[in-house]
Specification:
Structural class: alpha/beta
CATH architecture of the largest domain: 3-Layer(aba) Sandwich
CATH superfamily of the largest domain: Vaccinia Virus protein VP39
Largest sheet: 9 strands, mixed
Strand content: 5-15%
Number of helices: 16
Radius of gyration: 27 Å
Number of strands: 9
Strand order of the largest sheet: 3-2-1-4-5-7-6-8-9
CATH class of the largest domain: Alpha Beta
Number of domains: 2
Distance between the termini: 101 Å
């Protein structure tokens, strides 16, 4: 339709023999699948493995550039292999998929939601792929607070399933007023990098399903890039990310950073600061131990963050936010280029224990999103002057002054000794009662 409106000839991406209606589900005159023509059994598997996948992998070499749908198709199928070895099972799958529809925007939205849910279930089951999933309500809240706008560039150097870029696209698309705005969103706005092959494929497919046809995601180890090599042309207006927890990097990777540490997330934080333009904004998820670790690298990194950026907000997330991961996290919100003067803290309290069957939801985040606009104080929020931060340790721990301190946990030996004393006291009372009978 677009080609017709522009007065040009349209050339389909796929040649005839590789189109769905030819190899997968050919139809008869009644519109039903023609099983006389449809491949099945070993013939179907042979076609998929030996002809279809190699053909689709070849798109990468034939594409006019990396930012085209053809190139991304080639990249996706360059990482995939057919895992269905029964041609009869594959025939059933193809016919089930053929019954689905992907033409209307509502149907595409439904498909993207199903895809997100699948990634989340992989995480709940502790399976490969779920490790790249950040809860969507948290992502949405971070995007709302950072508020990326059309004309700004958005970057995630630890893309995973691309949840941040997808949500940023949905957020920014609401204010698109013209075809030029839509073109800017499609081609000049979203950038990402991902090291792991599976995550890379999941992320690209997620963005395509959300409406970004040729995602600018590069399959590379972000941390292998020397920080000094990042030039102003490489810097972005907005960084949104959840770097991997607990990873360890080799000494040769650490040499790319001025503050050397084996902790992957701390290296990513340095990368994100460097990747921001002056005045750029960031929302970064990180382990809460970053706020108080006493090693030299952590202290130096906190000092760098306070001196080179305005760390204006810290969101403290409850245990269980990340299903399948026992880590407790915080979200750092900062603007690059001005020194931190005041830090606003918000301690999220959903009023229940979070877990697989009781996940974080948007209602849990509503109060934070509302108060973040004015940095107001409440039972869950307070502010600290940066001048009050200890300049030896730069400890930024979350200590809510509006809540009573919880009693410290007692030593197990003390508890056992008290139990023994109570048992002896009870035994003495019982002996006295027995003597009176």
């Amino acid at each position: 339709m677009a080609a017709e409106l522009e007065g040009r000839t349209h050339t389909p991406i796929l040649t005839t023999s590789f189109r769905w209606g030819v190899w997968a589900c050919p139809k008869n005159k009644e519109g039903k699948i023609d099983h006389h023509k449809a491949l099945s059994g070993p013939d179907l598997v042979a076609f998929v493995d030996q002809q279809l996948f190699p053909y689709l992998r070849g798109f990468k070499q034939k594409a006019s550039g990396p930012n085209t749908i053809e190139y991304k198709i080639g990249e996706i199928f360059g990482e995939l292999t057919n895992k269905v070895k029964s041609g009869y099972n594959l025939r059933e799958i193809l016919e089930a998929v053929d019954a689905l529809h992907f033409q209307r925007s509502e149907e595409k939205h439904e498909l993207s939601e199903l895809y997100e849910a699948k990634i989340q279930r992989m995480g709940n089951a502790g399976r490969n792929g779920g490790e790249y999933y950040t809860p969507r309500p948290l992502i949405k809240a971070i995007v709302q607070v950072v508020d990326p706008r059309i004309g700004e560039t958005v970057y995630d150097g630890a893309v995973g399933s691309a949840g941040f870029l997808c949500e940023a696209f949905a957020h920014m698309e609401q204010s698109a007023k013209s075809t030029k705005d839509h073109e800017v969103l499609q081609t000049k706005t979203f950038f990402g990098k991902e090291k792991k092959s599976l995550a890379y494929i999941i992320g690209i497919m997620n963005m395509i399903l959300h409406g970004i046809e040729a995602p600018n995601i590069i399959h590379t180890n972000t941390l292998a890039e020397n920080l000094q090599d990042i030039q102003p042309k490489d810097q972005r207006d907005v960084v949104l990310a959840n770097p991997p927890f607990g990873g360890k990097e080799r000494p040769e990777v650490q040499q790319n950073f001025p503050i050397r540490t084996g902790e992957t997330a701390f290296l990513f934080l340095q990368h994100f600061i460097k990747s921001l333009k002056a005045g750029g904004r960031a929302g970064i998820v990180i382990k809460n131990t970053f706020l108080s670790n006493t090693d030299n690298a952590s202290i130096s990194l906190r000092r760098k963050l306070l001196e080179e950026c305005d760390l204006h907000s810290i969101l403290d997330m409850p245990q269980g936010t990340f299903q399948g991961a026992g880590v407790k996290t915080v979200v750092l919100f900062f603007t690059k280029g001005t020194r931190t003067r005041r830090i606003w803290y918000y301690q999220l309290d959903p009023g229940r224990s979070l877990g697989k069957t009781n996940a974080l939801n948007e209602a849990d985040m509503a109060d934070f999103v509302k108060l973040a606009k004015t940095k107001a104080e409440s039972a869950n929020s307070w502010s600290v002057n940066a001048a009050e931060v200890n300049t030896e340790t730069y400890d930024l721990s979350v200590k809510n002054p509006n809540r009573a301190e919880e009693a410290p946990l007692r030593d197990p030996k003390t508890i056992l000794q008290e139990m023994r004393e109570l048992d002896e006291k009870t035994k003495g009372l019982l002996d006295n009662i027995m003597s009176l009978l």
